[in-house]
Amino acid sequence: MEDIKETGVSGENGIAVIKTRPFDRKDTNLILSYLGFSFFALFLGALAGLMQALDRAGYIQLSPQLYYLFLTLHGVALALIFTTFFIIGFLYSGVIKTLGSEMRPTDRRIGWTAFMMMVAGTITALITVANSSSTVLYTFYAPMQASPWFYIGLALVIAGSWVSAIPIFSGYRRWRKRNPDKASPLFAYMSVATMILWIIATIGVAAEVIFQLIPWSLNWVDKIDVTLSRTLFWYFGHPLVYFWLLPAYIYWYVNIPHIIKGRLFSDSLPRLTFILFIIYSVPVGFHHQLMEPGISPFWKFVQVILTMLVVVPSLMTVFAILATFEIAGRKNGAQGNFQWIKNLPWRDVRFFAPFLAMIMFIPAGAGGIVNASYQLNQLVHNTLWVTGHFHMSLATTVVLTFFAISYWLVPMLTNRVFTPLANRLGIIQSIIWSIGILLMAGTMHIVGLLGSPRRTSYTTYNGHPAALEWFPYMQIIAVGGVLLFIGIILYLAIVVYLLLYAPKTTEPAEYPIGKVHEGAQQPPRILERWSVWITITVALILVSYFIPVMEMLRHSPPGSPPIRSW
Ligand code: HEM
Ligand SMILES: [Cu+2]
Residue 346: which residues within 8 A CB-CB, separation 6 or more? Predict the structure, then answer.
């Protein structure tokens, strides 16, 4: 009983005191369904990725149609589906742990409804990819046109993801009502922030899909405003990156301090960074459209400036996380400037994998600044440099962190032991992944600078010297790709082992939630006034989008008829 009472109660400095108590069976089923579906998408995407890497090096020959089919599958399954399902599962787990001991039955039903909607939408969209009627890549740029069912499927996934946010919001609201004077548990606070960001962002792509793409693909209208559709896409596409990153940051900020037996350095700073990520991440989509006509340079410039501001919360995050590591490392009496580094649990994959992820974020972040720079973008736009960039950021910083999360979360959900064997295999897996990424994504950066385009199957351009120069790099990319494929198979093997075969236990591990350092202050109340932050975000969105979008509508060209490229 004690345990139950204490769960979700705010302890010192507003951070919840978590006592071990197994998840309710009904909750684990829900969370495991989200995670399980994400693993399925990961497997599909990995197969496609392997094919692409081998094809570009000339080791296998795919027809161009098949190449784009795989590329669409890869982008959709990994960037859109794997990430979204995994994130919702992870957020549910931490929200349940910090806000109460289990989900309310109504919320659980809503969680299941969301899951069904998203699965139905995914399967609908993927069937149209598989039958070659929708090889439009995961950005589904008009005027390339897909089957209406592709867009309808995606709309269902988006709508389902909105429904999935309800249990998080309602749990948070009820907790705040019960504890009016306390700061909410940090994990729940950050989950709410992540879902607010997601909803603000997806409104753009939902508008594109519902008002432009679906009517156009159903032949209700025969032309589409391409500039507007891409603007709505990138209004979503950039904050999408933060929807992936914020859950990784949650793990770094909230869970890792417990794993390394440390303390959070502050309870306010992480909240402030999340607010800043919401504010700065939406009104910046034009940095993906710097090379496109129809948007005046002034507004591109405004959004580039706003883009660079995101460096501020990013560096705050680096600072806070390193401070947390140092506090942990020094707790057992480390001397000098650097001895604390040795004291960190390097042999624990729950720390080791995200640490590699953080290291990889340094080149990934630097590359991002290059991409967003007006002039430098001209050099790298649509080259393999960009592909290299998001395999370092998304496919490593984020994905390696997600791998680490599943290593402890899955056995906790199944009441099994996270065995030393699984830990060791996890460390090997993280190393394989990092080497694979350095080979594949590192080389993509270089060959991208040499001009090799992305989204292009094997070609020698009729023996053109440039293509011959790129060729050896493609072979290194293929080797890296094979390592990554092995990495995913090993990861899935470990997860299946933890799901079904690891020894059972009656004392499941403790859900890792870090406590705040004694010296830290109570977070200011204003940080929980969401209406304030949403208003500021909406105002900034209006400032950076209203006039250019009005200009687009005013100069609206006759529009483009569909192009069907197969
Ligand atoms: C087995 C591991 C992987 C391999 C071998 C692989 C390989 C590749 C290759 C070769 C491309 C470029 C194709 C081209 O532009 O012609 C690509 C694109 C891409 N990859 Fe991966 N990748 C892997 C894992 C991942 C993961 C884990 C993610 C994200 C979670 C990811 C996200 C993407 C995205 C979003 C694209 C862009 C698709 C497009 O341009 O439409 N990849 N991948
Ligand atoms: Cu962006």
Answer: 352
- In the 3-class helix/strand/coil scheme, how is 216-278 assigned residue by residue? HHCCCCCCECHHHHHHHHHHHHHHHHHHHHHHHHHHHHHHHHHHCCCEECCCCHHHHHHHHHH
Domain 26-321+346-554 has CATH 1.20.210.10: yes
Binding site membership of 52 for ligand 1 (Cβ less than 6 Å):
yes
> 407 an active-site residue?
no
- Give the pair of three-digit tokens for residue 453: 């385009």
The answer to whether the CB of 57 is under 6 A from ligand 1 is no
Report yes or no: 235 and 282 within 8 Å, Cβ to Cβ.
yes
pTM: 0.95
* Ligand 1 contact via 137 beta carbon (within 6 Å): yes
Distance from residue 140's CA to the centre of ligand 1 (Å): 16
HSE toward the beta carbon, residue 266, CA cutoff 13 A: 16
Distance (angstroms) between ligand 2 centre and the Cα of 3 equals: 44
- For residue 323, which of 129, 128, 544, 519 has the smallest C-alpha distance? 519
> What atom of ligand 1 comes closest to residue 477's alpha carbon?
10
Tens of pLDDT, residues 192-246: 999 999 999 999 999 999 999 999 999 999 999 999 999 999 999 999 999 999 9
Q: Is residue 418 within 8 Å of 331, Cβ to Cβ?
A: no
* pLDDT the model gives residue 347: 95
Other CB atoms within 10 Å distance of the CB of residue 181: 8
**For ligand 1, atom 25: residue with the closest CA:** 395
CA atoms within 13 A on the CB side of 208: 26
How big, in percent rounded to 5, are the helix, strand and coil portions of the chain? 75, 0, 25
Q: How many CA atoms lie within 13 A of 235 on its CB side?
A: 27
How far apart, in whole angstroms, are the C-alpha atoms of residue 10 and residue 523?
13
Question: Ramachandran region of residue 178, left (φ > 0), alpha (ψ -120 to 50) or beta?
Answer: alpha
Q: Where are the domains of the chain?
A: 26-321+346-554
Give the Cα separation of 261 and 242 in Å (integer): 28
CA dihedral 548, 550, 556, 559 (to 10 degrees): 80
Cα dihedral 414/415/420/426 (nearest 10): 20
Task: Give pLDDT tens digits for 87-128.
Answer: 999 999 999 999 988 899 999 999 999 999 999 999 999 999
Q: Is 261 left (phi over 0), alpha (psi -120 to 50) or beta?
A: left
Residue 400 CB–ligand 1 contact under 6 Å: no
Closest residue (by CA) to atom 18 of ligand 1?
Answer: 387
